[in-house]
Amino acid sequence: MTSRVFFLKDIQSEGYRQSLSDQDLATLEVYLREMKQGPADGEMDIAWQENGKGYYQHLHNLDTINDVTEREKYLLRLQEDIKLWLADDPGNHMVERVRVCLPGNQ
Predict the structure, then answer these.
(1) What is the pLDDT of residues 51-79, one digit of tens each?
(2) What is the pTM of this model?
(3) Burial degree of 94 (CB within 10 A; 0-12, 13-18, 19+)
(4) Cα 41 to the chain's mean position, in Å?
(5) Which of the 8 DSSP states describes residue 90?
(6) Closest CA to 62 of 47, 75, 51, 49
(7) Of 2, 18, 21, 72, which one's alpha carbon is 20 to 30 angstroms from that of 32?
């Protein structure tokens, strides 16, 4: 299981992808597969949320940022990323769950 997260804008950038190591590219492929397939059932979804698998890792990352300014920057970037993901893949379960869990959306 990977705990690395990516932002869609970065993923879509050929330059960004070319800058990744072979290991990071392999991690990206797993991440994209997780994003496409999502958790198989409710129990797996809960486990993915608790463990920060796939897109849920963004919530874990957000929780670890203590600096208010940095947290706001990450939150804004994440909100933009959510818009991009949902425009590309409307109704993506993980992205929707993260969106709902963000401050102000509960």
Answers:
(1) 988 899 999 999 999 999 999 999 999 99
(2) 0.88
(3) buried
(4) 19
(5) T
(6) 75
(7) 72
